[in-house]
Amino acid sequence: MRINLQQSMKMSQQMKLAPRMIQSMEILQLPVMALQERVDQELAENVALEVEDRDRTVSESEETAEREKARDENERSESEKGPLEVDNDDGNADDFERLVDMAESWPDDNYTSGSKPSSNRISDAGDRAFDAMANAPARTQSLHDSLVEQFGYFDTTPEVRAFGVYLIQNLDEDGRLQSGLPDLMSAYGRAITYEDAERALTLIQKLDPPGVGARNVQECLLLQLSDELEYRDELEVLISRHLEDLAANRLPAIQRKTGYDLETITAAAEELSHLNPHPGREFRSVPAQAVTPDLAVDRDDDGKYSVRLLDEYTPNLRISKYYIKQLRNNPDAATKEYIKKKIEGAQWLIESIEQRNQTVKKVTEAIVEHQRDFLEKGPEHIHPLKMEEIAEKVGVHVTTVSRAVSDKWVQTPRGLFPLRQFFGGGTTTEDGEDVSWNQIRLKLKTIIEGEDKKKPLSDDALVEALKEDGYNLARRTVTKYRKKMGIPSSRQRREYV
């Protein structure tokens, strides 16, 4: 085998994203509260970035009014000169001279002038901190902690108490034991008699919530039967022997096997529906996610809709004039390079946020224009919409639209909705009208709610009912959407009395 060394040339195309473009895409994808966290992080890491007090826009004296006028004139002149470029390789002498001039035109800020922060800024910061503490969820007691606390009230032997605590720690999130008592005794690692183990389990099964400590669904439901239930005896028989028939709504079969009449079986099944096969889940607290809308859709007196950004959670940012002066006056080259990079990062962030806000607003305006019928008439009138259509209207790539609507919510006169909800496919009716799948699901739900429950419609009958309204769908499509909506089959929906 011979090894040869040779040189060759190859041409290939590669796409490399600049750091600024990557940052812009990340900022675009952030919802408003995540954007606020990102801004807070940047403020802590970048000394050249600072917050501009929103209240400074209010003039309280002639001096303040003059300063505001000077700033406006300076901004107009700067807009005529074009955007600042802080990342060129030529030293940016002219651009940084402009930054220094702009800094001198700004009124003194609360960070570089040596004065204390304004009372309004302190109040706003205190309000945000108080809201964060007030909205922090309190730690809830777990299922195991609650059961151990209750178990401690029993007067029993140390052996039974220790094994009882061991059994409680082996309960799953439903409050049930996944293993039999002999297996748990073997894994316990300490000597204990079967009588003591059974005594510990019996005590656990007396705790709240009712049904904990069961080894299967039947035992869990049987533990919840109380003498106050009108059909307690019938329920004990149904749970022990006919639970599968009940789940499948095979009431006539239960009638033949038990001799109970249909009225009794139906009434007992109604009582059974109030029992909880998963008692432990009451302690599985899933904190509700607070939704903060990024935008709002308003309707004026003429019936026109407008979109506005809700940016009160995001502070106004600007580049620190103190560090702009330091860039000019500091003689140390390393320090100047450090400040230059910080100013560059601050400028990138400010522009990325501005670009994000403009893109999200334009995308939402295009969505509102397409879904006007939804705003006027309700969710059943939402139209099919693809992201490609909005991308073409706005003049951006489809991936930009996807990032712009990701985790974003909009407050409309119809309520609060995620922007992604306005996208979806659909079909065409026999009249040539485009309808969304959401509209079809609502129609399917309406048909099932209005059916005769003693003779519920099969999936084939649902296909025919939809066809009468102009929706020509395959049976498998109807079945798929029925299952997605959690609607049981016609046999399970049937009522016998």
From TrEMBL:
Bias-annotated ranges (Basic and acidic residues): 52-84
Organism per entry: Alienimonas californiensis
GO BP terms in the entry: DNA-templated transcription initiation
Ranges for domain RNA polymerase sigma factor 54 DNA-binding: 337-494
Gene Ontology terms: cellular component: DNA-directed RNA polymerase complex
GO molecular function: DNA binding; DNA-binding transcription activator activity; nucleotidyltransferase activity; sigma factor activity
Domain of life: Bacteria
Assigned protein family: Belongs to the sigma-54 factor family.
Keyword Cell membrane assigned: no
UniProt keyword annotations, A-Z: DNA-binding, DNA-directed RNA polymerase, Nucleotidyltransferase, Sigma factor, Transcription, Transcription regulation, Transferase
Domain RNA polymerase sigma factor 54 core-binding: 134-323
Gene3D superfamilies: Homeodomain-like, RNA polymerase sigma-54 factor, core-binding domain
InterPro entries attached to this UniProt entry: RNA_pol_sigma_54, RNA_pol_sigma_54_core-bd, RNA_pol_sigma_54_DNA-bd, RpoN_core-bd_sf
One Pfam family in the UniProt entry: Sigma54_AID
Biased amino acid composition, Polar residues: 110-122
Disordered: annotated span: 52-94, 104-123
Protein name, UniProt field: RNA polymerase sigma-54 factor
